[in-house]
Amino acid sequence: MSTRLIIAIMASAIALGTGCNSQTRTGSQMKPINNAHTITGNEWDQFANWMKNSMVQSGVLARYRNDAGEPVVIAIADWDNNTNQRSFTRDKTVMENAIRKTLVNSGMAVINRDVGGSGSKAEGLTRSISELRESSEYDQSTVTRPGLARAPSLGLYMQINRIPVHDGRTTQYDYAVQCELIDLQNKYTVWEDQFLMSKQFVRGL
Predict the structure, then answer these.
(1) Helices 41-58 and 93-106 sit at what angle, rounded to 10 degrees?
(2) Average per-residue pLDDT for the chain
(3) Residues 85, 88, 91, CA angle at the centre, nearest 5°?
(4) pTM summary value
(5) CA 57 to CA 116: how far, in whole Å?
(6) Of 106, 97, 111, 119, whose CA–CA distance to 156 is shortest?
(7) Confidence at residue 189, expressed as pLDDT on a 0 to 100 scale
(8) Which backbone phi and psi does 107 adopt, to 5 degrees?
(9) For a pLDDT cut of 70, what percent of the chain falls above it?
């Protein structure tokens, strides 16, 4: 076998070996598959836990209990997906489910399923609250006049952003989930936080 042929075979083997060596890093963890473009179910759940912990530690839910000590009523707006990953619009329901479960099971909050969550943006929540006036289904004392049901006191709004950074063979995606609770009576934000997760993708040679 000629020297030239041996060199060509070795070069091909090296190229194949390094080409299959692409890896994804999330924090300090290296993973064998390229999941830099996605957010896994466990990672959505992690975002939910960060949000819940921040919200509870801030004391905002306790402040919005009524005089009878009943849990605060929260309406959830639709997400703003500010990335080009259309799958996030569907996949983020894992995070929504975790948030709803945590808040309801904590006894500190209940989720209103009639206002928001079906197309509402942040400003849509504040507008839809006004539409509850004169409704026979809602306790009008929570929207200005007597009725039956307690109107939401707070609205939860969330959005996700992704910032790509390229450096040679390394691409880093910084995922940021921005969350805020809006006082729907006074129409101002009473709690907000942003949760960051970085994922790196290293291309093989």
Answers:
(1) 40
(2) 77
(3) 145
(4) 0.70
(5) 25
(6) 111
(7) 94
(8) 80, 0
(9) 74
